[in-house]
Design a protein that fits this description.
The protein is mainly beta and 178 residues long. It has one domain: Immunoglobulin-like (Sandwich). The protein has 1 helix and 11 strands; from the N terminus they run E-E-E-E-E-E-E-E-E-H-E-E. The strands form 3 sheets. The chain has a 5-stranded mixed beta sheet, with no helix packed on it. A 4-stranded antiparallel beta sheet has the order 1-2-5-8, with no helix packed on it. Strands 4-9 form a two-stranded antiparallel ribbon. The radius of gyration is 24 Å and the shape is elongated. The protein starts with a strand and ends in a 17-residue tail after the last strand.
Length: 178
């Protein structure tokens, strides 16, 4: 798995908001070069500093698009009002929201992306499909937006059709008669 992180500066009280999330690359080799699904299981942590007030809630939206298909972003996760808890309720802090998300099917969430888009059914070599994942966040004190930001990262899926092997062995013998 690879990873990506970005420190975002947006003009909501000039606070610094950072989102760190991993996407990476995944690969599979199948007997016929096809797949049945591609899933995403995000792990998202928000970090902030210099807020005018302590945050109480976070809104997190995660969208995905296929770069090769020129498909638009489709929202996979749109979590609003996630609580900022405990010692994280300060003007400088971080919150791990990984437990608020679960594994979801990209194919089920995005009508423009199909399993056949990833196929290496001809066996001509690995098929590499790149998608872009976008995470957009905002944190509030309950009523006022304190900071917002977004970042993107690539997610690459490689499918390889395992070539068939055929071995011929044996021998031929005969007899000559006269």
């Amino acid at each position: 798995m690879g990873g990506a992180g970005a420190y975002l500066n947006r003009d909501a009280t000039t606070a610094a908001l950072a989102t760190n999330f991993t996407a990476g690359s995944d690969a599979i080799t199948t007997g016929d070069g096809t797949i049945s699904d591609v899933t995403l299981d995000p792990s998202i942590t928000l970090s902030w500093s210099g807020l005018d007030a302590a945050p109480k809630k976070a809104d997190v939206s995660l969208s995905v698009k296929s770069d090769q298909l020129n498909a638009d972003y489709e929202t996979m996760y749109d979590e609003t009002g996630l609580p900022v808890t405990g010692q994280n309720k300060t003007t400088n802090g971080s919150q791990d929201f990984s437990n608020h998300f679960g594994e979801r099917s990209i194919l089920g969430a995005h009508p423009g992306i199909r399993a056949s888009d990833f196929a290496d059914d001809e066996g001509s070599g690995p098929t590499e499909t790149t998608m872009t994942i976008e995470v957009a966040v905002s944190i509030t004190d309950g009523s006022t937006v304190l900071a917002t930001g977004s970042t993107t990262t690539p997610y690459v899926v490689t499918v390889t059709n395992q070539g068939a092997n055929l071995t011929i062995s044996g021998s031929a013998g005969g007899e000559v008669s006269g």
